[in-house]
Design brief:
about 425 residues, cytoplasm, 5-stranded mixed beta sheet, ligase, aa-tRNA-synth_II, HisRS-like_core, 8-stranded mixed beta sheet, about 35% helix, EC 6.1.1.21
């Protein structure tokens, strides 16, 4: 016997019935995007490595430790599996001059890849849904993408997700804050762990996001970026808060909230839950007004968010939300194999009319087929018995209403009665 081949560690199969929850989630997302007039964009899974080095920053954890990077053996190109979605979407918009006629509201759904230790909510192949609004510079779009998340939580039946917001200001403001931050950490160098010491001069803002209990008091006392923001940045942030207030959306201004990529400025935000342990952030995003220029385009503002699908579905399960199970409208019972040609014709006609029909295959007694029909969850059984077919009919038996009577329908033109099998 050949050696069994298994999936790569941290890259998981999604099989029925679990896949039905994913389809439900994706359908819910697509319906939301239609309501907000966001259009779908699909980018390659493999991109040139410099896109992420330039876009995310050389000293980010993603670029330094987590990317699946390799050299194309055919032409020597440095390539990487995408670790996130924003850089690829912006690259596509720039490459195809998509902003020539104005801003674009886009969304994507797909797999991302990071080489890290697999754990609950963090896998080496994980999946994200994200939105990117490019070409819009005002706080109105910031509020829109944040409130879009709120609408999604409602559509999914999730009521226990809170919003944190912050402003990172502009590069010059962050530069002044960065100098003050480094000076503060240097005065407390004895409290810094190895990771913080490594980041001290390369990415000190990320030290604010530490989970090390021994550093919490020192980090809490660090200079806050909001104290270094200029008038324009504060005006943008105040306008965002005013719109969230008007929409009745609670939020917490979290001065320690930062993002892991270098391209963020002004508004940043996270949606957080206490139901998933340490991996409590299920959506994060913010404004990245310099990224378009960074990847070779004409300067244009942008804002977006990315949401981990695995984490959201984990939260759905934790909160006991039960997505509707996919069930056929009808189950076709064929006691005699000789009736299969006629049954197949009728079933295909019903499917063409929009009826979901599961056809029994593999033979078996009438009793065993009825058991499978009942287990399928179908609302009706279609019985292609010899007597019925001799009369040019198929028997239609309700399976979920004991009081409803069995009826007979003509097999000559199933489209005439197909609508009777659909849910009201």
């Amino acid at each position: 016997m050949a050696e069994k081949i298994v999936a790569v560690k941290g890259m998981n199969d999604i099989l029925p019935p679990e896949s039905a929850r994913w389809e439900w989630f994706e359908d819910t997302v697509r319906a939301l995007m239609r309501r907000y007039a966001y259009q779908n964009v699909r980018t390659p899974i493999v991109e040139h490595t410099p896109l992420f080095v330039r876009g995310l920053g050389e000293v980010t954890d993603i670029v330094e430790k987590e990317m699946y990077s390799f050299v194309d053996s055919m032409n020597g190109d440095p390539l990487s599996l995408r670790p996130e979605g924003t850089a690829g979407v912006v690259r596509a918009v720039v490459e195809h001059s998509a902003l020539y006629d104005g801003g674009k509201r886009l969304f994507y759904i797909g797999p991302m890849f990071r080489h890290e230790r697999p754990q609950r909510g963090r896998y080496r192949q994980f999946h994200q849904v994200g939105v990117e609004a490019l070409g819009f510079g005002g706080p109105d779009v910031d509020a829109e993408v944040i409130l879009m998340c709120r609408a999604l939580w409602k559509d999914l039946g999730l009521g226990e997700v809170r919003l944190d917001i912050n402003s990172l200001g502009q590069p010059e403001e962050r530069k002044a804050h960065r100098a003050a931050l480094i000076a503060h950490f240097e005065r407390h160098a004895e409290l810094l762990d190895e990771d913080a010491r490594r980041r001290l001069h390369s990415n000190p803002l990320r030290i604010l996001d530490t989970k090390n209990p021994a550093m919490q008091a020192m980090v809490e006392a660090a200079p806050q970026l909001i104290d270094y923001l200029g008038e324009a940045s504060l005006k943008h942030f105040d306008a965002l808060k005013a719109m969230l207030d008007a929409a009745g959306q609670p939020y917490r201004v979290n001065p320690r909230l930062v993002r892991g990529m270098d391209y963020y400025n002004l508004t940043v935000f996270e949606w957080v839950t206490d139901k998933l342990g340490a991996q409590g952030t299920i959506c994060g995003g913010g404004r990245y007004d310099g990224l378009v220029e960074l990847v070779g385009g004409k300067p244009a503002p942008g804002i977006g968010w990315g949401m981990g699908i695995e984490r959201v579905l984990d939260l759905v399960q934790q909160l006991g939300v039960a997505p509707p199970a996919p069930v056929p409208d009808a189950y076709a019972i064929v006691p005699d194999g000789a009736a299969l040609p006629q049954a197949m014709r009728v079933v295909e006609a019903l499917r063409a009319a929009g009826v979901a029909v599961q056809l029994h295959v593999g033979g078996g007694s009438m009793k065993s087929q009825f058991k499978k029909a009942d287990a399928s969850g179908a609302r009706h059984a279609l019985i292609f018995g010899g007597d019925e077919l001799a009369r040019g009919e198929v028997a239609v038996k309700p399976l979920r209403d004991a009081a409803a009577a069995q009826t007979a329908r003509p097999i000559a033109d199933p489209a005439i009665w197909a609508s009777e099998l659909l849910p009201a």
